[in-house]
TrEMBL record:
Keywords, in A-Z order: Cell membrane, Electron transport, Heme, Iron, Membrane, Metal-binding, Signal, Transmembrane, Transmembrane helix, Transport
Cell location: Cell membrane
Gene: fdhC3
Entry's transmembrane regions: 56-79, 100-125, 137-157, 195-217, 237-261
Name used for this protein in its record: Formate dehydrogenase N, cytochrome b-556 subunit
Gene source species: Malaciobacter molluscorum LMG 25693
InterPro entries per UniProt: Cyt_b561_bac/Ni-Hgenase, Di-haem_cyt_TM, FDH_cytochrome_b556_subunit, Formate_DH_gsu
Domain of life per record: Bacteria
Signal sequence segment: 1-18
């Protein structure tokens, strides 16, 4: 048995010597990394990565892909959309810059999420050229999202900070479970929109970083080595974090689309024209509406 182990190590050593010395995966560190697998100092991610990637991630993504739309379909059929008067004032809410950044991020997600699902279920799609094209489209769309994420973070940061209204909003689920037009405690953005914002921005930034690590894979950073992380540990950790955040982003993006396109009739027009209907603001963002009235801006 020992001679086979020695032969294997010899072959690996030969590969390492022949490989590019600067390679983080196939360079001179390949044998130390293999020998250190699952030993003290490693992240012990091997079994977890195999279990999550091989079984549970696909189940969770499948549940999101079918479960979230199914819940919204039931809501639409039973509760139906909120409809507000279009005969009152129009309240200017979003500038041209706000709308441009929003749509840049929005169109990025329209590509990122479906291509992400294709990569998760790459085996189902048979791999090959289709999955490879989706991978490249995913990477290209990430660039456009990266351009939008920081402007989006800074332009809405103050208005997205938590307030006491958010707790009240969550306790009644934003009033979406009944057909009454009771004023809902919310500022310019409600608790649901804030959840999506923080997931989209901070979560999105982490996904950009972990996605880049997985896309480029074979690179070397001194800071990684200084933390005692092997490249394989870094890749596994990145994949796990990327997938978990991907689930949250996919579910909340579907929610965001449903709310703006179906649950509130005409709501999406505010991101086209910049204006919301006065009754919509009065009911769904009552705290914000009161402040506008106090400032005599409406």
């Amino acid at each position: 048995m020992k001679k086979y182990i020695l032969l294997l190590l010899f072959v690996l050593a030969s590969v390492a010597i022949a490989a590019d010395e600067s390679s983080a995966i196939f360079g001179k560190d390949i044998i130390p990394n293999i020998l250190a697998y699952d030993k003290a100092g490693s992240l012990h991610l091997g079994k977890w990565f195999t279990l999550l990637q091989g079984k549970y991630f696909s189940i969770a993504f499948l549940a999101i892909a079918f479960g979230v739309p199914a819940v919204f379909l039931v809501h639409y059929l039973i509760i139906g959309p909120m409809i507000f008067s279009h005969d009152r004032k129009k309240i200017h809410v979003f500038t041209i810059f706000h709308r441009f950044i929003h749509w840049l991020a929005g169109f990025s997600f329209i590509v990122l999420i479906p291509t992400g699902f294709v990569m998760v279920f790459g085996t189902f799609f048979g791999g090959g050229e289709f999955v490879r094209v989706c991978k490249e489209l995913h990477a290209i769309s990430t660039v456009f999202f990266a351009i939008s994420v920081l402007p989006m973070l800074f332009m809405w940061l103050k208005e997205m900070l938590p307030t006491s209204d958010d707790i009240k909003w969550l306790m009644i689920l934003g009033g979406y479970l009944n057909k009454r037009k009771d004023p809902i405690p919310a500022g310019k953005f409600n608790a649901g929109q804030k959840m999506w914002f923080w997931t989209c921005t901070f979560g999105g930034i982490i996904m950009i970083i972990t996605g880049a690590i997985m896309y480029f894979q074979d690179f070397k950073l001194d800071i990684i080595a200084s933390l005692g992380l092997s490249q394989i540990d870094l890749l596994r950790a990145s994949a796990i974090v990327h997938n978990v955040l991907g689930m949250a982003v996919a579910a909340l993006f579907m929610t965001h689309v449903y709310m703006s396109v179906f649950a509130i009739k005409g709501a999406i027009h505010s991101m086209i024209t910049g204006y919301k209907e006065e009754e919509e603001v009065e009911i769904l963002h009552s705290t914000y509406y009161k402040k506008l009235k106090e400032k005599k801006e409406i």
